[in-house]
Amino acid sequence: MAGVTPAAAGRAAEALHRFNARHPWDHNAHYHPWITRQLPRHVTSALDVGCGSGDLARLLARRATRVHGIDADPAILARARALTPPALPVAYTLGDAMTGLPPGPHDAITCVAVLHHLPLTEALTAFREHLAPGGTLVVLGLHRPRTPGDFLLEAAAIPANAALGWLKNRGRRAPRPVAMTAPTRPAETTYAEIVREAGRVLPGARIRRRLFWRWSLVWHRP
Known about the structure:
With 222 residues, this protein is α/β, with parallel strands linked by helices. It is built from 8 helices and 7 strands, in the order H-H-H-E-H-E-H-E-E-H-E-H-H-E-E.
């Protein structure tokens, strides 16, 4: 971004990292209430792809007769099972998001901060094929910043991130986020590439940039 040197950007990133270490909060969980609001009040079957420790899957259980969570990380999935009360209709599957999706169709599919680990076209196609007619797909993802607009939104997210971190942890001891043991990698696909491919695979999908280094997609299958 014009006017910002790599050294200055690096110092800002390091300062933000130190602040987040003192005031940790989950950027993905911040959007969970928004995700559930995109869904009908009640669905028969919901699928959370890359469910992690099951926070979103447990929220989905308030709206779904049954919820399936799938993740490739056995340690985090064990954590999800331990945190989920037996009375909740949530089942967890250890498996690959491309080949091990629980058979559908599902009335709702969610995928949070996972799509950048998967081949984009194939993953969107798999979600489409596992979604029931009339069903809703909600994706929260990451992308590689490239345009001035990308960097401007990232710059705006820095003070907002600090403010929310302080507010969420004010007056209490901040819990540490549950650590993932599966390999992670940075996003490589740009926002423009995601918009173009999602529009081809999921015609009519609603895609928006979001604060805190995220973008969202909502698609209703005809």
